[in-house]
């Protein structure tokens, strides 16, 4: 931002918002199905799922927005989602955007808010980034209630025969706090519990968050909560939340959190913001229920899948689409000139630091050197039978010659491509992208899953590693191999799989840029998220609890003399 350009927060706070009831009416949601949270936010009651308006032309078109491998710069998936939805509205389409809720940990850490940016935001921005309707707190409470019951069961002698050495259920908090990654609990007097090693994850990494995301109804959520595995007995059988008789209480805590949140874009269009699962080890998408409500009432629904196509899109396709039975018609792959230069491997880029000056100079050669990464993500989308569209998220310092390099690659691959300037110009700036999406939706896609659920867990992991990540194969650690065998024995073999790996590379090594080949993926640990409905393999050094940087955003966020939030971005 220049000195004369308003910040995203200034743009958001200056906006004149429509009454949320009017926004709901545009979406076809009756006032009787709204639960108001202040003036500009409302929850939509689940009864709205049972009384959708009759669609004029059948189910809405479903557009998922993904991206190239993320860089510390950020490629702008969320802003592109919002800008595209706004652009589609300017073309006469009834469009809705469905997004994840930001975690407050990264908001106060280094990432900042995640409501979009510039003139393509969801508002009210500060409400969206800070608490919203309390869903994250409900997930935290439900998760930690189960943790408390687990430790109480151990303290009372374990009525279910839980082996304390097998407990995998940690605690969660929505704060970046590295000192809580590994802790010892139960210290003190005998009545203070059973001493054992444990730790904290960030709330967005909780399996409860994923359950909230993938549930199709209150009953489905209740059943999924009961299937959560917290450890095993001394004889190796799974111990669940149902066994501990606490799943019902967890469902009570989450009852209201299952209702999606209705907000609006800066241009007054409806935006459903719901759930926020971690993208590294979970699905990284908004909720099934939010999408279903939107798809029953709109012409086009634009949603986002976290990180690059290798992670977010693959999980969207193989996990979320299996859970909700819905499949996308088009996938938008977001890239930037800066991202392509970063993937050239010619620049050293660090979060929170200024870009190397040479990176801002016109250099089509650097863009060309980074194109293998974009090509790999296009091919990932095509592997699922989905039509890809490349969106070049333009920045003020871009050069037309650099955009042309990306366009030429797309022409060679037979892929539609559009430049979008939605951050600076709102929906009008996304006109070319909106037109391109509308053209692609005329033909749609021939969706297919990457693997069949009848394949073994090892086969599924290897399929993702070789066909999506480009690995030569996988190397499974002995402990992981034993866990996989146990999961097959316990009846979890037909679940889909999620690969928990770095988001900074298509590979499992964050140092490998572009589209790496000639490497093998190490599988060091495997866990089951039975309630969420998948097995996840941990490949590389994964952090489920972020730390704070030297100068976190929390030191800049404050209230002014009138009680307004300042410093949020």
Verbal overview:
The protein has 569 residues and is α/β, with parallel strands linked by helices. 33% of the residues lie in helices and 18% in strands. It folds into three domains: 8-128 and 258-441, 3-Layer(aba) Sandwich (Rossmann fold); 135-254, Domain 2, N(10)-formyltetrahydrofolate synthetase (2-Layer Sandwich), CATH 3.30.1510; 457-538, Formyltetrahydrofolate synthetase, domain 3 (Roll). The chain contains 18 helices and 25 strands. The strands form seven sheets. Strands 1, 2, 3, 4, 5, 6, 13, 14, 15, 16, 17 and 18 form a twelve-stranded mixed sheet that branches. Strands 20-23-22 form a three-stranded mixed sheet. It has a two-stranded parallel ribbon with strand order 7-10. Strand 1 (34-36) and strand 2 form a beta hairpin. The longest helix has 21 residues, at 135-155. The protein is globular and about 70 Å long.
CATH class membership of the largest domain: Alpha Beta
Domain unit count: 3
Net shape: globular
Strand content: 15-25%
Poorly predicted ranges (pLDDT <50, ≥5 residues)?
none
- Structural class call reads alpha/beta
CATH architecture of the largest domain: 3-Layer(aba) Sandwich
Question: Biggest sheet: strands, sense, closure?
Answer: 12 strands, mixed
**Number of strand elements:** 25
Mean pLDDT: 93
Report the CATH superfamily of the largest domain: P-loop containing nucleotide triphosphate hydrolases
Name the helicity range: 25-40%
Rg, Cα atoms, Å:
23 Å
Distance between the termini: 11 Å
CATH topology of the largest domain: Rossmann fold
Number of helices: 18
């Amino acid at each position: 931002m220049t000195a004369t350009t308003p910040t995203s927060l200034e743009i958001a706070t200056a906006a004149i918002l429509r009454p949320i009831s009017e926004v709901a009416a545009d979406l076809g949601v009756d006032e009787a199905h709204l639960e108001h949270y202040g003036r500009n936010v409302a929850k939509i009651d689940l009864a709205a799922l049972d009384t959708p308006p009759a669609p004029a032309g059948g189910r809405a078109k479903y557009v998922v927005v993904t991206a190239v491998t993320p860089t510390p710069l950020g490629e702008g998936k969320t802003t592109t989602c919002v800008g595209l939805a706004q652009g589609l509205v300017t073309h006469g389409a009834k469009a809705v955007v469905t997004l994840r809720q930001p975690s407050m940990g990264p908001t106060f850490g280094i990432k900042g808010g995640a409501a979009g940016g510039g003139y393509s935001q969801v508002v009210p921005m500060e409400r969206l980034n800070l608490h919203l309707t309390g869903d994250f707190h409900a997930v935290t409470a439900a998760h930690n209630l189960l943790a408390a019951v687990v430790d109480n069961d151990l303290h009372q002698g374990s009525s279910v025969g839980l082996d304390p050495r097998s407990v995998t259920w940690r605690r969660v908090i929505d704060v970046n706090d590295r000192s809580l990654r590994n802790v010892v609990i139960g210290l003190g007097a005998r009545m203070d519990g059973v001493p054992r090693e444990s730790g904290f994850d960030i709330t967005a990494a909780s399996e409860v968050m994923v359950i909230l995301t993938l549930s199709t109804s209150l009953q489905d959520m209740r059943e999924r909560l009961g299937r959560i595995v917290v450890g095993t007995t001394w004889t190796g059988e799974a111990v669940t939340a149902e066994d501990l008789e606490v799943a019902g209480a967890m469902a009570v805590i989450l009852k209201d959190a299952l209702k999606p949140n209705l907000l609006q874009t800066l241009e007054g269009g409806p935006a459903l913001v719901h759930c926020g699962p971690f993208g590294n080890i979970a699905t990284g998408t908004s909720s099934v229920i939010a999408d279903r409500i939107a798809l029953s009432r709109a012409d086009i629904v634009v949603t986002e899948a976290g990180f690059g196509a290798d992670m977010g899109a693959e999980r969207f396709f193989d996990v979320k689409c299996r859970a909700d039975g819905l499949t996308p018609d088009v996938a938008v792959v977001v890239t930037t000139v800066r991202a392509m230069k970063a993937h050239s491997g010619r620049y050293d880029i660090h979060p929170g630091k200024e870009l190397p000056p040479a990176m801002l100079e016109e250099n089509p050669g650097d863009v060309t050197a980074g194109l293998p990464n974009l090509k790999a993500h296009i091919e990932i989308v095509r592997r699922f039978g989905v039509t890809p569209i490349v969106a070049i998220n333009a920045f003020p310092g871009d050069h037309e010659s650099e955009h042309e390099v990306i366009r030429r690659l797309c022409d060679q691959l037979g892929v539609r491509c559009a430049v979008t300037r939605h951050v600076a110009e709102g929906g009008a700036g996304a006109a070319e992208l909106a037109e391109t999406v509308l053209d692609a939706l005329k033909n749609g896609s021939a969706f297919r899953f990457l693997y069949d659920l009848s394949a073994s867990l090892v086969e599924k992991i290897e399929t993702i590693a070789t066909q999506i990540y480009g690995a030569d194969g996988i190397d499974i650690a002995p402990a992981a191999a034993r866990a996989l065998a146990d999961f097959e024995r316990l009846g979890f073999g037909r679940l889909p799989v999620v690969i928990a790996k770095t988001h900074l590379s298509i590979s499992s090594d964050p140092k490998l840029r572009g589209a790496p080949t000639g490497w093998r993926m190490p599988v060091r640990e495997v866990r089951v998220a039975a309630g969420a409905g998948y097995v996840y393999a941990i490949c590389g050094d994964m952090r489920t609890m972020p730390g704070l940087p030297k100068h976190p955003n929390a030191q800049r966020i404050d209230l002014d003399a009138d009680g307004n939030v300042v410093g949020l971005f």
